[in-house]
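Margin note: ligand = nicotinamide-adenine-dinucleotide.
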Amino acid sequence: MLEESRHYFRNAANVLGLSERVRDILLAPFRVVKVELITESDEGKLMKHSGYRVQHSRVRGPMKGGLRYHPTVDEDEATALANLMTWKTAVVNIPYGGAKGGINCDPNQLSEREVNEITRTFVGQIKEVIGPTIDIPAPDVNTNAKIMGWIMDEYSKYHGFSPGVVTGKPLHLFGSDGREEATGRGVTIILEEVLKSQGKTMKDVTVAFQGFGNVGSYAARLMADQGAKIVAVGDHAGGVSNDEGLDVEKLAAWTAQHRTVAGFPGGDAFNSSDVLTWNADVLVPAALGDVLTKDNAADVRASIIVEAANAPTTPEADEIFRQRGIMVVPDILANAGGVTVSYFEWAQNIQQFRWDLDRIRNELSAHMRKAYASVADVAKKRDVDLRTAAFVLAIQRVGEAALSRRPYAEAADLPT
Ligand code: NAD
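Resulting structure:
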C-alpha cells in the first residue's frame, strides 16, 4: 500500500517537475510513533499489542486521521494512509495535515473491557503527541464513536476538558450532527458534480455499489433520493440486484437487521465479487482497498468509478481505466466528506457552539463542490486525469504553505 500511495504522488510530482530531493521531503513523515501496550485480559493474563501513530505533515495545520484496530495495522500501512490524509485535507482545503494510526489487534477476540483498557493505555502512551492543536484522531476500521468518547475522556484526565482531541464522538459527547452521513453525502455531491459536467443528472444513471456499510448505504440512499437507480449491491456475504432499481430504504432496514445485503427479498442474489464488473453506468467501491486490479479492470463496465473506499484501485488498474477512457474520481476527493465534517466537529468543540444540521450540510456541500471545481480545473489546464489533478492541487497547497513557513532559499524548490 505504501508503494501504491507513492505511485500516485510520483505521477503528480512528474507533472510538477519536482526534484527527487523535494519529493523525499514531501513524502517523509514528520513523526512515527510506535508503542507497546501491556494490558490485562479478562482472564488476568498479560497481553501485549503494538500501537502506531504516523504523523505525516503538519504544514497546513494540526494532523488529522483515523485510528484502526486490525491485525494488519503496522508502520507501513499507517505511513501510507497518513500520507493520503495530508493530500486529502489539502484537496478539500481544510486546515489540517495528515496522520493515521491504530493498534495491531483483532477486536473480535477482545471483550469491550479489554478494548477499553487497550485504548486508554494507548492514549496514556501517546498523550504528548496528540491534542486539539497537534494531532486529532478519528474513527476508522473497527473503531467507532464509543471508542472516540473513551479517548476524549482519557486524554482529558491529563490535559483537562478537551473535546477537540478526537472527532467522530457520540452526539451527546460533543460529536457533530451530520458526521455519520458525511462521507456518503460527500460521495453523492461529487457524483452530482461529475454528472453535471457531462450534462446529466442522477436520473440518467444506474449505479452499482461494493459495500453497504456506513459510506455505501448513505451514498446509495442519497443517490436514489435524487433518482439514480441502484441496480446492484455486493458486500462481504453476498450480492443483490434489481434492474428496476433496489428499494434502498428497505435494503438498509434489511441490512441493519441481518448485517448483510444477502438474502434481501427485493432483488436477485448474485456472487458478491461480480458487482465490480456489473452492467451499470457508475461503480462505487465502498468497502475495501485494492479491489480493482489488473485482473478485473478490463472487465469493468461502468464509465465512471467513484472511489468511496480508501485506495480501492491499484496503479495497474488505474492505468487500464485511463486507457479505456473510464473516469476515476479519486478517494482523496470523493470520500473527503468525512474528514470535512470532522473539521466542523472540531471547530464546534473549539468554539463551544453547536451548529445545526442544515448549516453542516450546506458547509459540506460548499466545500465538496469547491474541491471538485478546483480539481476539475487543474485536470483541464494540465490535461491530466482527476487523480493526478487532485494530487497536483494538494502538493501545490502543501508546498505553498511550507514555503510561507520556511523562508529558506532552498524552500524555493517547493512547488507552488
Ligand atoms: P463499514 O464497516 O461500515 O462497511 C464496510 C462494507 O464493506 C460492509 O458493507 C461490508 O459488508 C463490506 N465488505 C467487507 N468486506 C467485503 C468484501 N470482502 N467484499 C465486499 N464487501 C465487503 O465501513 P465504512 O465506514 O462504510 O467504510 C467503507 C470504506 O470507506 C473503507 O475503505 C473506509 O476506509 C472508507 N472511508 C470511510 C469513511 C467514513 O467516514 N466511514 C471515510 C473515508 C473513507
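Residues 2 and 80 are 4 Å apart (CA to CA).
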